Amino acid sequence: FVATVRPMAEATLAVIGGDGIGPEVTAEAVKVIEAVTGPGVFDRVDYDLGATRWQRTGEVLPDSVMAELDTADAILLGAVGAAPGATDVPSGLLERGLLLKLRFAFDHYVNLRPSKLYPGSVSPLADPGEIDFVVVREGTEGLYCGNGGVVRAGTPNEIATEVSVNTALGVERVVRDAFARAVARRGKLTLVHKHNVLVNAGGLWRRIFEQVAAEFPGVQTDYLHVDAATIFLATDPSRFDVIVTDNLFGDIITDLAAAVTGGIGLACSGNVNPEGTHPSMFEPVHGSAPDIAGRQIADPTAAILSGALLLEHLGRSAEAEEINKAVIADLADRRPGTTRRTAEVGDAIAAAVG
Amino acid sequence: FVATVRPMAEATLAVIGGDGIGPEVTAEAVKVIEAVTGPGVFDRVDYDLGATRWQRTGEVLPDSVMAELDTADAILLGAVGAAPGATDVPSGLLERGLLLKLRFAFDHYVNLRPSKLYPGSVSPLADPGEIDFVVVREGTEGLYCGNGGVVRAGTPNEIATEVSVNTALGVERVVRDAFARAVARRGKLTLVHKHNVLVNAGGLWRRIFEQVAAEFPGVQTDYLHVDAATIFLATDPSRFDVIVTDNLFGDIITDLAAAVTGGIGLACSGNVNPEGTHPSMFEPVHGSAPDIAGRQIADPTAAILSGALLLEHLGRSAEAEEINKAVIADLADRRPGTTRRTAEVGDAIAAAVG
Ligand SMILES: CC(C)[C@H](C(=O)O)[C@@H](O)C(=O)O
Ligand SMILES: CC(C)[C@H](C(=O)O)[C@@H](O)C(=O)O
Prior knowledge:
2 copies of one chain form a homodimer.
Chain A: E1 11-18, H1 22-37, E2 42-47, H2 51-57, H3 63-69, E3 74-79, H4 93-105, E4 110-116, E5 132-138, E6 142-151, E7 159-167, H5 168-184, E8 188-193, H6 199-215, E9 220-225, H7 226-235, E10 242-245, H8 247-260, E11 268-272, E12 280-284, H9 301-313, H10 317-333, H11 342-353
Parallel strand pairs in A: 1-2, 1-3, 3-12, 5-10, 8-9, 8-10
Antiparallel strand pairs in A: 4-5, 4-11, 6-7, 11-12
Helix pairs in contact in A: 1-9, 1-10, 1-11, 5-6, 7-8, 9-10, 10-11
Bound molecules: 3-isopropylmalic acid (IPM) (2 copies).
Cofactor (chains A, B): Mn(2+); Mg(2+)
GO molecular function, one term (chains A, B): magnesium ion binding
InterPro entries (chains A, B): ICDH/IPMDH, IsoCit/isopropylmalate_DH_CS, IsoPropMal-DH-like_dom
């Protein structure tokens, strides 16, 4: 027989479209990635995971799939989450069983969420100023551990607990990462916590933050309680350069940050394992938006920018930069009131980088 | 001997000025309360509590003071919290030992935080719309319980935990209160939580919310994850009427709500014990702002509005309404760029209600 010899790809890209608008926006991110790298660079493997698969097969994330994903060089994820009406999907099933499972198993301790107000995107703030900061959200600890439980479930005497677990190891590694990023940026790092109430976790975060700060005398540091941080995000977001915070606070303030920089449709993120012991995973901050799914009206920009973060992580900085530039140009061209189909946005950006 | 017979006051008002700007703004709230009720209605007792007292005496809240406070009809609080430089005050000492101690001991399970954009106050949002909602924040449970601890403290292997405790009793009573408020307002109630991650606590909150909702068919309900709620607060705050949420989420979103309605200088709150088994306590949402303390530049409006909430709670609705009207008129008159001393603002509002 005659074998078709295909040049070996440089890297494996696992793609999990997920639910709702996830597959649509991910398709555009893949289109742009393949346009900028040219063909043959990535071996792409698509994984059918999410609410739809669970409803069909009862499987969330089989061990064999997990093992396969672990061999990828990077993962691109759309979004997971069933439609609100889907009462057959237990709350948290996909979050805990898929998204958080990957973040925890692959030790994605740096959840990287840049916030930048690009020309052409509209902030809800009257006077947003120049917004350009990055949130380093811890990704493997805190209230996201899944510790906690229920006593006397379903009775009038139910007690439900949630336990936030914070370790010196976990806090130190993410704080170090944040300091390094601050050095590479404008040299300012803000710790966000709530140490006046969460004295145990807050004490640990503060102590480690101060210890590591001593090694980075060039970085200007400050501290904000999470409640005060939301005020500054709404009134003076240009004050921030790098923010480091725990898993839950990071979840909350990055949605707010996305809102003030023109919306969740633009916010990208990376779940990064800096040592590369497992693949890192890149995803838009937005959810599966089941209400608009399948209609080609979702904005794929966040997914495309997540693709740029992915390339950057794999050391392909020039290509990442090309995507960012093309997105910035595309955003600047957008006219309020006009809309393009999801694929049209992807086509335009792919053409610009192709 | 000749006794001076003074008519008996109708109620006892305990006043805790506290730290930083607390005493200054509280003095104006007292001034306005006494102007609107006329003399002799309240027996006022001032309590010297807070960082300054602790630094002087080592006492945070002696049991005897606690017992006395418990006999008051209502408490007016300024703010507690030492200056950031005061390294002799351990983090959380005053919060846990004073503010939260009172909230918990006096069973202030309804932490009431109205948000209203008044004419004349400036929102950072370009298009804020008509903002008028109230957050019913749970006040006696969740991560504020003070459960948690530290293992191997101060070592590189430290583990710090925080436990969120949620009970059916605690959730149900605050949810009921929120439904009742929604009925008395525009009939809309939003539950804010994060049940896709905090499945134990979130499950309890959702189940009870749905159970109580069945008794209030006239109330339109919806649910938002806390991260999504911050987006709506920044992009469409007029969608809210009543929000009910847990202690920590309530802390975070009410600061954001204050920001979008013109700033923390205007946000009032009530720590309410609806059954009246202990006195309720009213305080501005802002903190002690040690950086501007003693300079008569703090805005006393939040404290004055908290005074109105206090009167309302004591059944003196007409007087509360008078204060609110005077504040609204005062706000409408304020000219951006001009400033008045703290006491001048109080004088103006006191004169208007006097
Ligand atoms: C879907 C959910 C579990 C997730 C989170 O809370 O981390 C999402 O909100 C995010 O920010 O990525
Ligand atoms: C001072 C602090 C303990 C308090 C809280 O977190 O409740 C404050 O932020 C508030 O909102 O009243």
